[in-house]
Amino acid sequence: MFKKILIANRGEIALRIIRTCKEMGIKTVAVYSTADKESLHVRFADEAVCIGPPSSAQSYLNIPTLIAAAEITNADAIHPGYGFLSENAEFSRICQENNIKFIGASPDMINKMGDKASAKATMKKAGVPCIPGSEGLLDSLQDALKIAHKIKYPVILKATAGGGGRGMRVAHNDEELEKGWNDARTEAKAAFGNDGIYLEKFVVEPRHIEIQICGDQYGHVCHLSERDCSIQRRHQKLVEEAPSPFMTDKLREAMGKAAIAGAAAINYEGVGTIEFLVDANRDFYFMEMNTRIQVEHPVTEEIINYDLIKEQIKVAAGVPISGNSYYPKMHAMECRINAEDPKNGFRPSPGKITVLHIPGGHGVRVDTHVYAGYTIPSNYDSMIAKLITVAQTREECIVKMKRALSEFVVEGVKTTIPFHLALMDNADFKAGNFNTGFLESSFDFSTL
């Protein structure tokens, strides 16, 4: 087992990893930018190293500085968390070259799944259902038009290196496709330095359902049930739950087998997620694979009583998994508490938290790195906490979430708590009648 792990991340996920490491008897090293000097992950790690100014490019994305921090503290492994360098093949490779274990996917696995066009080709070969579309990257607008006419509108253009909804455009006719072609490529080039675009049939009113998987170094892969991530705004998830209210035993079995086949096709090692779009007929299609831990991993942990960070570390250290797949025993839900103003287009609201009260009670979990007096920097993602509730049924889980949200007090900045409270009262949400377009098409923001 590792003696010391450097966490190449910040905020709540860094603190989350530190907690599990402590329980496993593993020393930890926190890294931080000057903007994060007062963050709790810095306080609770065994050691802390400043890695640069607030800019992510000069701190959390600075590979040479991170490697140097690991070397001077004698860390024998690096956990990248999510975001930042967690799916960076170059970082994984450099860790290998410096005899530091990267607690995540290998460079080859990241490359195969990081490029969405090649990921789709790999999944098709493994027999995983994929959305009809281009076989690879598009060479020209003419190619896009030709395929769109063949598979019929609506279609969606996607950046091969995309993420967070950037580099994506939906088109319902040739004119929209031409405009989307130019806009998507420009946005993708600016955001990712790669303007590669592919095209797919646009699945109308889909559910976004993902399967949590885990694979070890010995070729064993299992799944740990599903999460429903359909409540999202501009492709950014706001609420996740497990199990999905749309799920059936038959569909879970089929999606689980498909996810295992996809992971096995690349000899996947570690914890990861295979994401699917599921249409109204419960036909499912591969969307992408995340070769890392995800923000929403706590809901899976709560329904099966399973520490996914611990499993990640054990697998990276060469411990085999049991090989058994897991099925939900409870119902869990996660609300992302962001420092944003939902009454004003979810505008970011950085600043100093003057008052903070964290909810508690049976079946309530809060993952956060903030405290009263903490100043939320404007340099990073606006998520400041994750509120998770778990209960025997979905109905009880929603009631518990509403109660916990009403106890969650954050003053000094705007947060998404009012939005989540309104959502818990929404009749369609409570009935499980929603899809990825629910907030744009059906939710009444005037109720906030």
Automatic annotation (TrEMBL):
Catalytic activity from the UniProt record: N(6)-biotinyl-L-lysyl-[protein] + hydrogencarbonate + ATP = N(6)-carboxybiotinyl-L-lysyl-[protein] + ADP + phosphate + H(+)
Biological role stated in the UniProt entry: This protein is a component of the acetyl coenzyme A carboxylase complex; first, biotin carboxylase catalyzes the carboxylation of the carrier protein and then the transcarboxylase transfers the carboxyl group to form malonyl-CoA.
Single GO BP term: malonyl-CoA biosynthetic process
UniProt superkingdom: Bacteria
Name of the protein in question: Biotin carboxylase
PROSITE patterns (alphabetical): ATP_GRASP (PS50975), BC (PS50979), CPSASE_1 (PS00866), CPSASE_2 (PS00867)
Gene name as annotated: accC
Self-association and partners: Acetyl-CoA carboxylase is a heterohexamer of biotin carboxyl carrier protein, biotin carboxylase and the two subunits of carboxyl transferase in a 2:2 complex.
